[in-house]
Amino acid sequence: MQTTCNLFNEFDYEFIKGNDYVAAARYLLTREINSKLSKNKVRFRLLWDRKRQDSKPHAVAVNLLGAMYYQFYDAVRSGRHFKKCVVCGKWERVERSTWLYHDSCGSTWRNRKRRVLEAVRKGKKTTAQLAVELGVDAATVEAWIK
């Protein structure tokens, strides 16, 4: 017996053409975010900015879950990109694709990278092993060696 899941109604299905799985996933994500935002209210308020002496619009969540879904909504809507710091493991919104670590993690990263390069040069480990340890691809480690 085969079971089917009706994720799209007939009206919604018109928006998903052919086998565009990315569009389908985006559509389902949009529906899920809207559903969560309707249950965890976020209200918009004008709050006074003392420095500018003017009011500014702000989204104010009723609860923590609403704040989290609003942040998720904002990230999806704005097309922001996020990466995990290879040193501390915390997530950060990034502007450039080559970002690897926070400014505060820089010295730790440089020391780790130096030790890795020494281990490769001495033949203790392969570039692939060290790439896994550092959280980068093997080609990046090989480029550092050259």
Q: What report would you give on this structure?
A:
The protein is of the alpha+beta class and 146 residues long. It has a domain at 11-79. It is 48% helix and 16% strand. It is built from six helices and four strands; from the N terminus they run H-H-E-E-H-E-E-H-H-H. It has helices at 10-13, 21-39, 64-78, 106-121, 127-134, 138-145; strands at residues 42-49, 54-61, 81-84, 91-94. The strands form two sheets. It has a two-stranded antiparallel ribbon with strand order 1-2. Strands 3-4 form a two-stranded antiparallel sheet. Helix 2 (21-39) runs antiparallel to helix 3 (64-78) and helix 5 packs across helix 6 (138-145). The longest helix is centred in the N-terminal third of the chain and has 19 residues, at 21-39. It is flat, with a radius of gyration of 23 Å. The termini are far apart. The mean pLDDT is 80.
Strand content: 15-25%
Number of strands: 4
Based on Cα principal axes, name the global outline.
flat
Radius of gyration, CA atoms, in whole angstroms: 23 Å
Please state the average pLDDT score: 80
Number of helices: 6
The first-to-last residue Cα distance is 59 Å
Low-confidence stretches: none
Order of helices and strands: HHEEHEEHHH
> What structural class should be given to the helix and strand makeup?
alpha+beta
Q: Which range best describes the helical content: under 10%, 10-25%, 25-40%, 40-55%, 55-70% or over 70%?
A: 40-55%
Biggest sheet record: 2 strands, antiparallel
The largest sheet has its strands arranged as 1-2
